[in-house]
Amino acid sequence: MKFTYDELVKVTEADVLQCSNTSGMFTVSTDSRNINDSNVYLPLKGEKFDGHGFIKDAVDKGVRGYFTNDKNKKFPQAKFILYVPNTLEAYLKLALYYKEKVNPITIAITGSSGKTTTKEMMASVAKQAYKTHKSPLNHNNEIGLCQTLLSMPQDTEVLVLEMGMRGLGEIELLSKYSKPDIAIIANTGTAHIGRLGSEKNIAKAKCEISKYLHKEGLLLAHDTELIRDVNDFEGKTVYVGLNSPELKDIKLNENSSAFNYKGYPYELNIEGLHNIQNALFVINAGLKLGISEAKIAQGLKEYRPIENRWQVEEIAGYKIINDSYNSNPESLKAAVSTFLSTQKPPRLLVLGDMKELGDNEKKYHEQIGLFLNQYDDVKLVTVGELAKYIADTSKHKSVSFANSGEVAPYIINNIEKGTTILFKASRSMKFEEIIKELNKQ
Fold it and tell me: What is the rounded distance in angstroms from the CA atom of residue 373 to the CA atom of residue 389?
């Protein structure tokens, strides 16, 4: 998206500190490393960085104008300099301005787990009938929202956004600057409970997605008592869950699943009840968009997992299921349940620490071990100080390692070929390094 000088000033409500030339159109850049005279530089400030320190670099590379949040600093010369109190807010205002010019139907998705899968499923369905743009990968914070909106083609008809959060108020901000027409709360659980303090606060944070949802819009929410208690959206809410009487004929297979919902059959090329639940949100949203059941079914069937989310491949004689993008108690139980109910022995669980669980982190890991006790014929490897508590409460024979570097050699030397292995941990555990090592064998 390109802006005129007048748009930059008006939309951001900027004070003009310096101006000698306003001609041309400008794209907004927040990265001084890749910038030229067709850009306006907008320096962002974070906990560990401040883009204002790179204004001179941007000017040296030919940028004609830039924003600043400091009126008193000595500035490098440029064709124009614009002051705003908060550069991130200015970025958000510009992104919303462009979004409202394009005016796509906007679907916003959040959840303690399942939001990326639901987003990808939703985009796969929407593109069957509309020109669709979606959040790439995990661009689910304020900066990611701006990047997603500003990269949107002008002919976009449906916009699918993923919204993440680490604290109260963050999803409300994302909702404010995207103004969704349909909002989905895919799941609430204990992810980030260390920051938010309670599951009720997590539910409140997720329900912020409806703060700027159009009143004639639709909120699709995971059917839990907690969400029902805190949801204050005044428009239409549809609660979605696996207990729906309209959900029938569930079939869970290895690497696939099938079900009938509202009288129509659907198939997924991925297993797990949790993925069927994700699909139910998408079906309801698709119907709201006016997409036929046949096209919704086609979109769901075309969905494939991405980036360490239930990726299945053969490595070193093992069947590897890599679900190590992230982990919390709810997503881990769902993954383990799916794995142990669809994969035949021999099978191995490689489970690592779950992060950001607060003062009760030990208890949450112990509960996973107890959860495993309902299953038989399970081999278990844990990685990390916290994950060892899983092994301590599990009845299954287990091996525990302090770090991931010891895991690949152990598997090669002790686990029989043909074993199916599930890898699941928080992203900071870097389980992809284990799989890289197995790939070298």
Answer: 14
Q: What token pair was written down for 434?
A: 């284990």
- In 3D space, the residue among 232, 193, 192 whose CA is nearest the CA of residue 215 turns out to be 232
What 3 state SS string does 384-404 have? Answer: CCCCHHHHHHCCCCEEEECCH
Q: pLDDT tens across 181-239, in order? A: 999 999 776 655 666 667 888 888 899 999 999 999 999 999 998 899 999 999 999 99
Q: Percent of the chain, pLDDT > 70?
A: 98
DSSP string, 287-346: HHTT--HHHHHHHHHH----TTSSEEEEETTEEEEE--S---HHHHHHHHHHHHHHSPSS
pLDDT tens column, 13-65: 999 999 999 998 999 999 988 898 899 999 998 878 899 999 999 999 999 99
Q: What are phi and psi of 204, to 5 degrees?
A: -60, -45
Tokens 């929407």 locate to: 126
Query: Which CATH number does the domain 3-86 belong to among 3.40.109.10, 3.40.1390.10, 3.40.50.1820, 3.30.1160.10?
Result: 3.40.1390.10
Q: Tokens 């239409």 identify what position? A: 236
Phi-psi domain of 97 (left: phi exceeds 0; alpha: psi -120 through 50; beta: other): alpha
If phi over 0 gives left and psi between -120 and 50 gives alpha, with beta otherwise, what is residue 321?
beta
* Confidence (pTM): 0.82
Phi, psi values for residue 363, rounded to 5°: -60, -45
Given a contact cutoff of 8 angstroms between Cβ atoms, the answer to whether 327 and 365 are in contact is: no
Q: Output the CA–CA distances (angstroms, integers) from residue 97 to 90, 154, 386, in the order listed.
A: 11, 13, 46
CA separation for the pair 419, 422 (Å, rounded): 10
Strand pairing class (264-268; 256-261): antiparallel
Strand 420-424 and strand 247-253: the pairing is unpaired
Q: Domain locations in the chain? A: 3-86, 103-302, 311-439
Task: Tell me: cis bond preceding 245? Omega within 30 of 0 counts.
Answer: no
Query: Looking at domain 103-302, which of 3.40.1190.10, 3.60.90.10, 3.40.50.1820, 3.40.30.10 is its CATH number?
Result: 3.40.1190.10
pLDDT for residue 46: 82
One CATH from 3.40.50.300, 3.90.190.20, 3.40.710.10, 3.30.70.600 for 311-439: 3.90.190.20
Angle, helices 273-288 vs 329-342, to 10°: value is 110
Task: Dig out the tokens for 200 from the structure.
Answer: 């009720």
